[in-house]
Amino acid sequence: MQTVKDALAGVSITGELEPAHALLNRACFIYEQNSLKYLEPCTGVSRSVEVQGTAKTKEISLEKGPLL
Fold it and tell me: I need a labelling partner for 55 at 20 to 30 A (CA). Which of 40, 45, 47, 66 fits?
């Protein structure tokens, strides 16, 4: 993470902007394999969400009932 912060000087990578360790691990693996792979947007959670253990769901909830 420190290498990323050093490479992106001037960009604040703290709090909600700090990526989860799982995301960093996947990105490093892709880099080391020298391959191009798709990372789903749902994998891009912050470190704070990862620490809390709360997973974002892929479901849509509607406030005023179902769509017809």
Answer: 66
